[in-house]
Specification:
The protein is built from 10 helices and 8 strands. By secondary structure, it is an alpha+beta fold. The strands form 3 sheets. Strands 3-2-5 form a 3-stranded antiparallel β-sheet. Helix 5 crosses helix 7 and helix 8 crosses helix 9.
Amino acid sequence: GLRFKSAPLTGMHSGVLINHREMPSQDDVRDSDGHNVRGEGLGCCGWTLVILSGILVMFSFPISIFFCIKIVKEYERAVIFRLGRVTSGRAKGPGLFFILPCTDSFVKVDLRTVSFNIPPQEILTKDSVTVAVDGVVYFRVLSAISSVINVSNADSCTRLLAQTTLRNVLGTKNLSELLSDREEISHSMQVTLDAATHSWGIKVERVEIKDVKLPLQLQRAMAAEAEATREARAKVIAAEGEMNASRALKEASLVIAESPSALQLRYLQTLTTIASENNSTIIFPLPIDVLQTFLTKGK
């Protein structure tokens, strides 16, 4: 007595298929509203022109073969337009591919990694210090179709976006953070650029900050501050040394006071040190007690 209905199951399968078809691929091209623009066909007139072009190629064979077969290198891809529309779902290449000379045109895209220098940018940091910062960016084309259709000049747009991103990111940092946290700043710029250029088919691989140029007056002030800090540290170390030396002398005086002969031995050791340096002057210490005896007799 059990009954099964197949309608909901069919609806579920159809819904799954629709969702699968709506998932964008790597080379999907969408308009400003997010709709896929490849679903539309060429139309009756378009297919008529394509058929006429194919007939022309057949009648002009083998001369037409030189205009129909194209070659792209291993690091290149070809985006083919047929009557202004992108053909197939992926870019062609590497190797040979076929086009119709009257209705097709193609654009070559280089997939190799490209590097460029960011010109020095005058940046006002968070603590109101003006610095000049430059850097280098490494990027490559990830989707050939998106880099041709979604942006007019992907290379130029990426360069301009890198300059503005450098100013925006460094404007939120202090001078001390800018000088010490370069790796973190570079990673933040790389993530920001990669997210902004994803729709252009660009993959930003690495961003590096090359140089941070400080104003001359600020350099002098920082140098003076560092020199004053070193001098203060040297004075503290010298004072600590004097204190330790005075404690050692105090302990030595207590030892000598307990043994009067130790003073005589110290005197002989001092004479030995002076004689070893080839000096003609010898100093004889005169005890204070002897002077007090002469002073008493004088009185």
